[in-house]
Specification:
Blueprint lengths: L4 E9 L15 E2 L8 H12 L1 E14 L11 E12 L4 E7 L12 E6 L2 E6 L5 E2 L20 E6 L3 E3 L2 E11 H19 L12 H4 L2 E9 L1
Parallel strand pairs: 1-12
Antiparallel strand pairs: 1-3, 2-9, 3-4, 4-5, 5-6, 6-7, 7-8, 9-11, 10-11, 11-12
């Protein structure tokens, strides 16, 4: 069962953000708990301020069974994904196309189209009909924001600057703090549900054990 597994996600984010320009960072490590700012957090703030952005990413998701009697003999599961899409935070719309292990990037229809509108998730394979698929994007783009994981990054390390296709950028490696991320999602979901009138103002959500048990690391490329 899903609840009996801890999820470790290794997120390799290869994104160029429109209107995001971080300049002059030297190789060092940032602690997001420190009062000083860090380039990844600044890039995320600017991306949210722009309200919309495009993204492309490769994700390796590793599900490791916990050491319980129920999971004796169980093995870790590894899934590879590639996805591309765009987010409009102001309109609460997320659109992406996802390819799994068997997908072919050169054949668009081999991927799965995903659309999230006002918290409702819809999927379509090939030219098929759109079908509701609750919770599909919970681990990929929580609360409809593909960059939401950046709310809980720590141990940020700047790598050597690179240039590709005439674009100069700096890769930043980071780890994700599960409990911090769980609290961020809790607050965001409360605000969404309160705004919809689906949760009384005097009631509060509890952090998701799924997110609290999550850990992982990733890399994001920030244009300089």
């Amino acid at each position: 069962m899903l609840g009996q597994f801890n999820k470790r996600k290794y997120l390799f984010l290869f994104s160029t953000f429109i209107c995001v320009c971080i300049i002059g960072f030297t190789a060092r490590t940032w602690n997001v708990n420190a009062k000083q700012s860090n380039p990844v957090a600044e890039a995320w703030v600017q991306a949210r301020a722009a309200s919309s952005y495009h993204f492309a990413s490769d994700i390796v998701e590793v599900t490791i069974p916990t050491t319980t009697v129920v999971n004796v003999g169980s093995r870790s599961r590894v899934k590879d994904f590639h996805l591309e899409g765009q987010t409009d935070l102001r309109s609460s719309i997320l659109e992406l196309r996802l390819w799994s292990d068997n997908g072919n990037l050169f054949q668009v229809d081999s991927g799965v189209a995903v659309r999230v509108t006002n918290g409702q998730t819809w999927v379509r394979s090939g030219n098929g009909q759109w079908q509701a698929s609750p919770n599909l994007t919970d681990s990929i783009a929580p609360v409809g924001d593909f960059l939401a994981y950046l709310a809980a990054v720590r141990d940020i390390t700047a790598m050597q600057p690179e240039t590709r296709a005439g674009i100069q950028y700096t890769p930043y490696h980071f780890t994700v703090d599960g409990p911090v991320f769980a609290e961020y999602v809790r607050v965001q979901m409360e605000q969404i549900l309160h705004a919809r009138g689906e949760l009384p103002l005097e009631m509060h959500l509890t952090p998701s054990p799924f997110y609290q048990g999550m850990n992982g690391d990733g890399e994001i490329w920030i244009r300089t």
